[in-house]
Specification:
The chain has about 325 residues and is of the alpha+beta class. The protein has two domains: about 110 residues, PurM-like, N-terminal domain (60s Ribosomal Protein L30, Chain: A, 2-Layer Sandwich), CATH 3.30.1330.10; about 180 residues, Phosphoribosyl-aminoimidazole Synthetase, Chain A, domain 2 (Alpha-Beta Complex), CATH 3.90.650.10. It has ten helices and 13 strands. The strands form two sheets. The protein has a seven-stranded mixed β-sheet, sandwiched between helices. Strands 1-2-3-6-4-5 form a six-stranded mixed β-sheet, with helices on one face. Helix 2 runs parallel beside helix 3, helix 4 packs across helix 6 and helix 5 packs across helix 6.
Length: about 325
């Protein structure tokens, strides 16, 4: 019987094989596709052009806000500034109307204006085979050549910083997709607060990235998305050819998220975690970066350390060191 993949990312070993086999690059591509690398880097005169594409598939509510921030986050994680955005908007046949289309366009436009991004093109169609709108974004940005940061730069001995906590995006998605049920269980005020996580503490990491860079030389950054913080840590380790050890009790988990995880029986480290940023920096500089982030209104915690590759990716929990669970299927899929 043919084995099919679960919902979520392709298995990393298969994706890595495909990228190695099928990527076509020329000499202008400074950073091409690989596990954990957030965007492509292209030689572009005096600066580097950063290019990223990402779809929004888990939720259709506030889809424009999600699309812009999720795509901008990958540019920010490379130390860059998002500048130009194009979208492919797919609308479900039999459900699409003018109001649905204009709502999405309005959301995309508003989110672009908030981040000073040009909404400069794309494609829209009504199509079969989907039951909700899907928006696929392409974000272009730029970075000074001496300011480029990638997930491949973490060094043995670096401390790992996590901004905000987990999991901003998952909290908002659960509240939006199961709103009526959760209001009956936890009340309207709680659900409203969870839905608003997309804005407060916020799903974007551009400010996180730019603030951290003001206080130290950043070795690596990575934007944990599908598969949660756990997958983000694995991707960072793979990209940097290193190991990682984190302490479970140092990972900040929003209380609202923990309550939803308990209710839906979701493992907190495995649900989509956009809104947080992983930063690798020297032990000496890490406290200064955390202080600088907090002084600018961004919560941050040192959650672990980069170690030799042979030590693997592990978590210290209840005084014991064990392998960090890898999530082939994002935990958020349990609610659908």
């Amino acid at each position: 019987m043919r084995k099919t993949f679960p919902v979520g990312k392709l298995p990393l070993h298969i994706l890595k094989r495909f990228l190695k086999k099928y990527a076509v690059l020329d000499k202008s591509v400074i950073v091409g596709p690989d596990i954990g690398l957030d965007a492509a880097v292209i030689e572009f005169g005096g600066k580097y052009l950063l290019a990223k594409t990402d779809p929004i598939t888990f939720t259709a509510k506030d889809i424009g806000l999600y699309t812009i921030n999720i795509n901008a986050n990958d540019i920010a994680a490379m130390g860059g500034v998002p500048r130009w955005f194009l979208s492919t908007v797919l609308l479900p046949a039999g459900k699409a109307d003018e109001k649905m289309a204009e709502t999405i366009f309005s959301q995309l436009s508003h989110a672009c204006k908030k981040l000073n991004i040009s909404f400069c093109g794309g494609h829209t169609e009504i199509t079969y085979g989907i039951d909700r709108p899907i928006v696929i974004g392409q974000m272009l940005g730029e970075v000074k050549k001496d300011k480029l940061v990638t997930a491949a730069g973490a060094r043995i001995g670096d401390n790992i910083i996590l901004t905000k906590g987990i999991a901003v995006e998952a909290t908002s998605i659960m509240a939006r997709e199961r709103e009526k049920e959760l209001i009956g269980k936890f009340g309207k005020a709680f659900v409203s607060r969870c839905k608003n996580f997309v804005k407060n503490p916020g799903i974007g990491i551009l400010k996180d990235s730019q603030t951290a860079a003001r206080f130290a030389k950043i070795h690596a950054m990575h934007d944990p998305t599908e598969g949660g913080l756990a997958t983000g840590l694995y991707e960072l380790a793979i990209a940097s050819k290193a190991g990682i050890i984190v302490d479970r009790d140092k990972i900040p988990v929003f209380s609202e998220y923990q309550k939803l995880c308990n209710y839906f029986r979701i493992i907190p480290l495995g649900a989509i975690a956009s809104g947080a940023l992983l930063i690798a920096v020297t032990e000496r500089d890490s406290k200064r970066v955390v202080f600088g982030l907090k002084r600018n209104g961004i919560e941050a915690s040192i959650i672990g350390k980069v170690v030799e590759k042979k030590k693997g990716v592990k978590i210290r929990e209840n005084g014991k060191l064990k392998n960090l669970k890898f999530f082939e299927r994002d935990e958020i899929t349990k609610i659908f």
